[in-house]
Amino acid sequence: MFQLAYRQFLLDPPRSMLTSFAIAAVIAVILLLEGFEAGLYTQSRRAVLDRGADLFVTQAGVSNLLATRSTLPQLTRIQVEAIEGVATAHPLTAIPVIYDKDGSKTPVFVWVYDSKGGPSSIIQGKPVTHGRDIVIDMALAKKHALSIGDPFIVSDFEFRVAGFTQDAAALFTSFAFVNYDGMLDLFLESEIAPDISTFPLLSFLLVEFEPNAAPDQIAQQIEQRIPDADVYMPGQLAANDVQLGRDLLGPILGLLISIAYGIGLLVAGLIMYADVTTRLRNFGVLTAILHEGL
What we know:
2 domains; elongated; alpha+beta; 8 helices
């Protein structure tokens, strides 16, 4: 096969190069789309697993970390920590906002954390230590040309960029991280203060087990004692978010990938048709020679 391709290249280099380029372009588009799809699902999975919880507690009926509003009563943390085998229940709040800089608007998912659930790594700068500090995804920083110490304004409230994290995004939305002091200041001092009742004060609890604890028993006790909450293992919640991504984007990406495969088949067919058409005279001569020989 390779020898035949080499001979074809020697016979007609321009045609061979054009054919190779066309096929390579189609393959590249297919790989790009499939890689994009796989990357989206990986981001959704990591958004859950990077929070570092042994167990997630959500509002009853909420089975996703992303793209679903969850609100827990403030006393839920005390109730969960009273269960045997639970070392700590770390609070986590999710606030979707729109970041607007110079007319360029970007959806941002702000994670409010206390002792767990923050950025999995800081690649530049420092973690959140002050109420005005915010850690943002590096991709968001590059998009808006933000540096350490720059203002990050959300609804008329000014945070200061303290650090950058990497690969903190999901479902086309970048992540940012603040602490609860920052959240309260945002609620009380920004333009969203009149609508503060529409924002959750506690979205999730990240449960940390004591050594040798029984996860299944702890999950069962939480379900029994707190009817307003649901419990999920990290892997289960991550799978739910991946499925959410498939439900939202799978049909569109599947259609695009199918179109790419169709274009690939069409390009290959056209190349073969053009190759055969240009050699019809040669085939006629070969047929005449064969008939003459018979």
